[in-house]
Amino acid sequence: MARKTDRRSVILDIAEKAVLEKGFDATSIEEIVAAAEISRGGFFYHFRDKNALARAMLERYIAAEDALFDDIFDRARDLDDDPLHAMLIGLKLMAEMLSDLPNGHPGCIIAAAAYQDRLFDDGVRALNRHAILAWRARFRAMFAEIAARHPPRQEIDLDALGDMVSGVMEGAIILQKVLEERELVARQIMQLRTYIKLLFAPPGSGEAA
């Protein structure tokens, strides 16, 4: 059973690398089979078709991102129980982590699937939508807790602010790819951090987190 699981992971690793480099449409089952050194039958043993492969890639990517967010923001909360300070610490930790990646952020499977959603069935599109809404809810809840303790200096839409975290990261990944600037995503996260600090920190409060 372990060997079957390992082979499935190898296929997903190869497919993810190819998709992030050139998209789902340009990634063929044939090249995945060749790179994984398996037969077509071996591929179809694990994945019924390309939709099943895309669904598995999305599920794995979403789980990894959720685990990353849990780890970073749980550590931040352990360092400071003020929700604003914890958010600022968490964003700084994330920026530092991304700065340490030798080739920058590798890309986003969610975005890759969204750009070519015509290729997929309703199940894959629904999974992608669910992931985005779940991240909106995650960050919205964090900002709602911050706002309850630190009233914002301007009227805000908490859903839009929750989306802003994902929006900044996804947009920065595109900019990084086009401009080939390895630390661009980290810099954009730090700009988002500055905006959040200015939005919630009271005037004259000094540097938070």
Question: What do you see in this structure?
Answer:
- The structure is a single chain.
- The protein is mostly helical and 209 residues long.
- It has two domains: 47 residues, Arc Repressor Mutant, subunit A; 151 residues, Tetracycline Repressor, domain 2.
- The chain is built from nine helices and no strands.
- Helix 1 packs across helix 2, helix 4 packs across helix 5 and helix 8 packs antiparallel against helix 9.
- The model has no long low-confidence stretch (mean pLDDT 90).
Break the fold down into its secondary structure elements and pairings.
Layout: H1 2-22, H2 29-36, H3 40-46, H4 50-79, H5 83-99, H6 109-115, H7 122-149, H8 158-179, H9 184-200
Helix pairs in contact: 1-2, 4-5, 4-7, 5-9, 7-8, 8-9
Would you kindly provide a brief summary of this structure?
The protein is mainly alpha-helical. It is 75% helix and 0% strand.
